[in-house]
Amino acid sequence: MSSLLHFSGHQHFRHRLVLSILSGRHVRVDKIRSDDKNPGLRDFEISLLRLLEKVTNGTVIEISVTGTAILLKPGIISGGAVTHDCPLSRSIGYFLEPVAMLAPFAKTPMQLTLRGITTDENDLSVDLFRTVTLSHLQLFGISDGLELRIKKRGAPPEGGGEAQFLCPIVKQVKTLNFVEPGKVKRIRGVAHAVRVNPQFSNRMIESSRSILNRYIPDIYLYSDVYKGDESGKSPGYALSLLAETTTSAIYCSEAISKAGVAPEDIGLEAARGLMAEVNLGGCVDRKHQILVLLMMVLGSEDVGRCRMSEPTPRTIQFLRDIKQFFGTSFKIVPAEHGSTQLLYSCYGTGYVNANRTLA
Amino acid sequence: AQTSLASSRKSRRKDWTKLIYATDLTPEEILRDTDREASDAKDAMDMDEEDFFQIKSRADNGEEVLDRSKEVWSAEELKKWEDEEMLESIRHLFITGEDNP
């Protein structure tokens, strides 16, 4: 089973490392930006490799002299208390996402402290991770003691934020059967503003309400205040929104401060983004397709089903890679006649957490 | 609304399982299929200018494709939601809306 898998290019780096560690298969990635003026791995990718070394035991990573090829021989997922300083080139979300896929299968519960940028435009912010990603893990029975504590905020470019991720371990994940999207019953949101006028939070909330109020009365947008040392090193503000349906499907969006853009416009951008996500529909939003599909593959030996919108380019590559690592392919059919939504189903591999210490 | 109807009809015919597992198309090519009209015109133009030598991928353009998990909406996509009618069109997706739009 541990035959070597071979990939090329820097894209999809994170999920290939995750799949390697979960499946125990060795992975070789070459041609990493080999045609680039500045070839090889970036600092955040090296940092991710270091982090994966910390949360595992016995992992061997070989990086070629030019940095354009790596070989990963995964060890076991050890978990436990780990602290990691993230480079300022990517936010904490870049590192949290792959760890969240591994942590439930660790030997001991993970207590991971990450320092760096807590919100940026590329990866899930700590707010979305806390309110949305963790809810998705709960769908699979990963819930007791699952938590993300946002200790300090850190806006780009200087960061200075800190978050602690606590994740329980499981023996096996539950089979998912989530095909009924339901209707949106409530909207929640978190606004924060650090090292700028604290009124900015309220201004974002007010403007987003001008769009959201028409639909439902159950809207609660919270202004999260961080002061002094807890507010990081750079000024910034953002609004993250989520809409929850009667069947607990969650759609989310986020907008982040940009130079020369008023807080009101950030609020509107977040609200419009949320409407676009609601319109796409399904039971899982696009940002979490990969996480949910992975957990479905790892589920017990039964057919898991989930209704989602069309796959993103990342998801398509992920589905192909999953087939290589686990031999599992999904059946993807239209959810119903005339719908753009799709029904994804697969037969779980019955993945068992072999690292778990027996109580 | 016309174009979105057309594209949804196309995607209905799309065999996702086959496209993903049994073809060599890149993820972008699979998705581009959905709005062929738009890309066809562009492809035709590319073909005209096509020479024996082809510029090698986008690696040279400096800007690389980031491994990012937040799918961003384009400015046009967001602009759509400034429209009152568009906002009303998704009312049925909320508990306060009618069952049939």
UniProtKB/TrEMBL annotation, chain A:
It is found in: Nucleus, Nucleolus. Residues 179-278 form the RNA 3'-terminal phosphate cyclase insert domain. GO terms for molecular function: RNA endonuclease activity. GO terms for biological process: endonucleolytic cleavage of tricistronic rRNA transcript (SSU-rRNA, 5.8S rRNA, LSU-rRNA). Keywords: Nucleus, Ribosome biogenesis. It comes from the Eukaryota. Residues 6-332 form the RNA 3'-terminal phosphate cyclase domain. One of its GO terms (cellular component) is nucleolus. Signal peptide: none annotated. It holds the Pfam family RTC_insert. Belongs to the RNA 3'-terminal cyclase family. Type 2 subfamily. PANTHER family: RNA 3' TERMINAL PHOSPHATE CYCLASE, RNA 3'-TERMINAL PHOSPHATE CYCLASE-LIKE PROTEIN. NCBIfam families: 18S_RNA_Rcl1p (TIGR03400). This is RNA 3'-terminal phosphate cyclase-like protein. It comes from Sphagnurus paluster.
